[in-house]
Amino acid sequence: MPEPTLAPERPRSPWHLFVAFTVLAMQGFGGVIAVAQRELCERHRWLTPSEFLELLGTAQVLPGPNVCNLSLMVGDRFFGWRGAMAALAGMITLPLIVMLALAWLVAQAPAHSATHDAVRGALWGITAVAGGQIIGTVLKLASPLRQHPLGTWQAMGLAAAAFLMMTWLRWPLLWVLLGLGSMACAWTFRVLGGTRADAA
Amino acid sequence: MSAQALTTWAPDTWLTLFGHFLALSLMSIGGAITLVPDMHRRLVDGGLLSDSDFTGAIALAQAAPGPNVLFVALMGWYGGGLGGAMVSMAGIMIPSTTLALLVSRWVATRKHTRGVQAFQSGMTPVTVGLLLATGWLLAPSVAQPRALALSAVVAVLVWRTRISLIWLVGAGALLGALGWV
User: Fold this and answer.
1) Cα B142 to chain center, whole Å?
2) A97, HSE (Cβ side, Cα atoms, 13 Å)
3) Rounded CA gap, B157 and B166, in Å?
4) Which of A11, A77, B84, B151 fits as disulfide partner to B139, beta carbons 3.0 to 4.6 Å?
5) Which of A118, A184, A200 has the CB atom closest to B177's CB atom?
6) What's residue B3's pLDDT?
7) 10 Å Cβ neighbour count for A82?
8) Where are the domains of chain A?
9) Which residues of A are less than 8 Å from B173 in CB distance?
10) Each residue of A150-168: pLDDT tens digit?
11) Where are the domains of chain B?
């Protein structure tokens, strides 16, 4: 069940989705979100940044890995359940094979200390890059907040509140989603106005 | 670590692993990584995995390409070989995938109602904040100034340029391996 989207392009087939998501996943070291935004919004242009954020917002309130939920939703949007399965399979299959091969190699090789240190160092470097990638992606994705129905500053304030609850107060994610998330939705619901008749 | 695990024939273990991950799947709000404490209780305290295999699986999956949920397959592999990896992955994915598909379709059909619009726009700022928190928690602290500088440079490059992300990862791995960050 294809759905209208504002983005200029769309995938040609489920196979196209499978390949695109394989390429995307194989670039995602230390997390896939930054690469997903880059590939889906900028390279393929299948989603606008707002659409990306909307899908990600739904993906993260549902159980399951966010990026896998996101791939399901993107696939479903263009080719129904076949697209959903193709995108998810692309996200998982090759990375899974590579990772099992890697684990097998690690188990075979005896632990040499110099190599071991180099690998640890490389992992540390990748983690630092992954953090920077996500922050850079957030800076890019912040622009849809300017057109937010609550107003730019209110939306920025909510984002800052979510950030502080996670990093400073160290609340569990579920509290932030239930507490701040439901409050933000209720507030937006009021601002969007209209009658209560068409409320979901 | 268990190198022979690849050929282990262990249907009983597979069934146990499948059951555990099936049960955990619908609790994995915010990703499978939020379930780590509960997984540790079930798998390590339950005698299916050693503690070093458990933490090793998480570290390896974080660094390898692809979604972080793959650490679940690695735990299954350490516990019960290739079959263990497959059933663990199936267990963690099937319930959450089914639910995600059903809910997103329900949301898509009601896209123009005020409730769904409020949900989608209302969650947007929260999503941005949570994503920023993820980046913040991954980034090094001020105690490691060179690694922190690397994160900052990467953030600016991703924000302002269209440089391929894979080059940044390669640079990070190289700098780390040489001990410069």
Assistant:
1) 25
2) 7
3) 12
4) B151
5) A118
6) 44
7) 15
8) 1-123, 142-200
9) 122-123, 125-126
10) 999 999 999 999 999 988 8
11) 3-122, 139-181
